[in-house]
Amino acid sequence: MLPATPTPDWPVPSGTPTLDPPRAIASLGVITVTYVVRRGDTLSGIAYATSTTPEELQQVNGLRNPDALRVGQILLIRRQVVGRTPALKLIPDSELVNGPTAVAFDTARFVSQQDGYLNRYSEVISGKRFTGAQIVQRVAEQFSVHPRLLLAALEHVGGWVTQHAPTDEQQRSPLGYTGMDRPSLYLQLSWAAARLNEGYYGWRLATRGYVRLNDGNYLAIAEGVNAGTAGLHNYLAAISTAADWPAIAEADGARAFMRTYRRLFGDPWRYEFGPLVPSGLEQPPLALPWRKGELWYFTGGPHSAWGSGTPWGALDFAPASVAGCTPLRDWVTAVADGVVARSADGEVVLSLDPSGDERVGWSVLYLHIASRNRPPAGARVKAGDLIGHPSCEGGFAVAAHLHLARKYNGEWLNAQGNPPFVLEGWMAIEGKREYDGALVKGDQRREACECKQPNYNGITR
Hints:
Blueprint: E1 29-36, H1 43-49, H2 54-61, E2 74-84, H3 107-114, H4 117-120, E3 122-125, E4 128-131, H5 132-143, H6 147-158, H7 168-172, H8 185-204, E5 210-212, E6 218-220, H9 227-238, H10 245-249, H11 257-265, E7 295-304, E8 312-319, E9 332-333, E10 338-344, E11 347-351, E12 362-367, E13 380-381, E14 386-388, E15 402-408, E16 411-412, E17 422-423, E18 426-430, E19 437-441, E20 444-447, H12 454-457, E21 458-460
Parallel strand pairs: 2-6
Antiparallel strand pairs: 1-2, 3-4, 5-6, 7-8, 7-21, 8-15, 9-14, 10-11, 10-13, 11-12, 12-15, 15-16, 17-18, 18-19, 19-20
């Protein structure tokens, strides 16, 4: 049993347990980053959030009418890179992803043993009351981020894990995010998990070579670090300014994040699993997720698997009977034999691994599955068995549909990646922006579209 407040004298990791291949990194000087316009955005709001001005955004993007922004529009933003992150590796990839090394970790037991503020905290989410430990575990599962890293962040910023009475500011912003209308541990953890994923997958996929500090400055990610460290740096940068960043990001020191982590969990490199997604991995055969003989529509091409920061790993499908957000009578079916690892709040996760644990081997996320007729956790299913009905439950949706994504060892997989997302021979192809793209099978091609045209985006199983 762990002591109530562990203070082991763990050694500082060397930072070079494995070599990482070089990545394309941001150079010092001016870089151009992108921002995708969302519902409700205004030019002044985007300028404030990105530490620029409406006038500069207009000039860089050639905007004649600043009030004519459209959802999905990509804006270019010029920023100054003022330095680099440390080249020292801080954590292995397996300590950022909720994968195999998290299986033996009991979040509720650990939180109870520390007996801090988190152990007495509770919050209502979607009409249900969750304990502090349950909230941490919920975010870990949904975003597939390691609960140890979330707990270390919650302790480092908010003191919630071991302190009985955090300050008022720590209670309002326990993960360092100050832009929320109301205190919420779930929203704070979700924000932190998104920043961790943003850095992790940006580095893994070579799409993001920088981090953004809270004061608007940018730093290039040092060459030679691993994805786990890049993800951690991305979160730490979001809660730091140029002045306090060096003390927080270093490997040791009174204010270093890693000192907090080691105080709670010891040397992170003792948990190193190695590559979570092995080279040459092949996807097992996956069926289309509806009953044979039925016509469904491909309504969303590759897009974020779970929230911002995750790869474009999800595909959307809907039957012909969509009518707003009313749960449909149509059935979603199992894409393969497996065990239902999780079933709640619109989510069904099917583990294809003999362990039945979504953190090990292959797993598939079904999102927006109605609570009616949804199989319980632990249920064993065969390919083609009934999973549930499309709805708007869970996540954000404006019409009932199915959102389908894959993980391997807890790591979200790109739809057009290695291995590619293939459903009964239909292979996913990315578009130029999220939700665009196609499914291709031989000489057949179906384009993603929020329409219902059998020969354009319809697929009969």
